[in-house]
Amino acid sequence: xxxxxxxxxxxxxxxxxxxxxxxxxxxxxxxxxxxxxxxxxxxxxxxxxxxxxxxxxxxxxxxxxxxxxxxxxxxxxxxxxxxxxxxxxxxxxxxxxxxxxxxxxxxxxxxxxxxxxxxxxxxxxxxxxxxxxxxxxxxxxxxxxxxxxxxxxxxxxxxxxxxxxxxxxxxxxxxxxxxxxxxxxxxxxxxxxxxxxxxxxxxxxxxxxxxxxxxxxxxxxxxxxxxxxxxxxxxxxxxxxxxxxxxxxxxxxxxxxxxxxxxxxxxxxxxxxxxxxxxxxxxxxxxxxxxxxxxxxxxxxxxxxxxxxxxxxxxxxxxxxxxxxxxxxxxxxxxxxxxxxxxxxxxxxxxxxxxxxxxxxxxxxxxxxxxxxxxxxxxxxxxxxxxxxxxxxxxxxxxxxxxxxxxxxxxxxxxxxxxxxxxxxxxxxxxxxxxxxxxxxxxxxxxxx
Length: 449
Fold this sequence. Notes:
The protein has helices at 8-40, 44-71, 81-97, 105-132, 134-137, 141-174, 178-203, 219-223, 230-260, 267-272, 277-281, 284-291, 293-317, 320-356, 361-390, 400-425, 430-445. The protein has a single domain (8-445), classed as Growth Hormone, Chain: A, CATH 1.20.1250.20. Helix 6 (141-174) packs across helix 14. It is mainly α.
């Protein structure tokens, strides 16, 4: 059970898949609502309905791809071939999503529905293997934590690239036409994402094979791994609630600093402050080894709550310094919490096999993609509806109700979500069983490396 099963080149190739995902995902979560409302002219309420319907569809596509991964048997493994199969379709649809044509309003809505829903489906298909392949890269939980942390660090590279450069590139390439600028920006990001997914296909290896993972897993058999798997149920809820908070805040950042603070020039810098997550991400493996994954995630969520409150105080006091300080504190907490989400989902794959004898890594890790996308949809719909109901008008001086809606999205709803996640984590007990679980699985499966 060596902690050096995966060479560094492979760790980086694997982690770059999250750079690829975020080059597209972060543009969607941060700017798609703004693109639809302010660049194209769609109503916020109509966009909110689109986001919700798309996520209802996602309630089916994530489990579908999870089942398909469990049924996949190729010479490349179960998860890895999906990088090859879906890299090009995903990149093309990402560009088309930010290429709404100049047609009738109803035609634009139909176009947005088709492209955005397709993008969500393809995102599930190519991003779910990023998580499902992790338990096949290494059988050692500490190395998984290290690899998962590296993955999140490289995800931050994609996030920082998007938050720092998107608007400058949009303005440069659009030359006054932001709709055109967003299209060219996505062409750049989606092209890079394609190359990184193909690189991962060629430079990763599924080396951990258990008895139950060497065959195509029937759906009925895979469902057994869910029965009684409370750690999985808890992490499914936390993934959902964490991403509701994330999308509502991220999606409202542009509105908050444009209309509430009246400092749109601060947007790239504030979003770029996510870089400070690296400071906490790099120490996650050593801290979890000493204090446990659950406790570190709880600590990170509490730090994020404190940061949100500091930002509110900065808003009330008219202090940019406090706003920036709060943003830094939130990002530091996010490094602890966000860095462990996917790793703890992977642990529930082992737990399901330990309890039932069935290793359904595709189906169980589908919950991470489902949580991200469903949380993204509910959060996106709520924030858009709140803007619409508050009387928000693109490019205008906002009413008091519109400003309050923006503040709720940016400050208070994320706090409520973080509190709910902390409460759920109090019932998560897998850390205590991990040593015995891994010893039993090693003896039972004679894991091939």
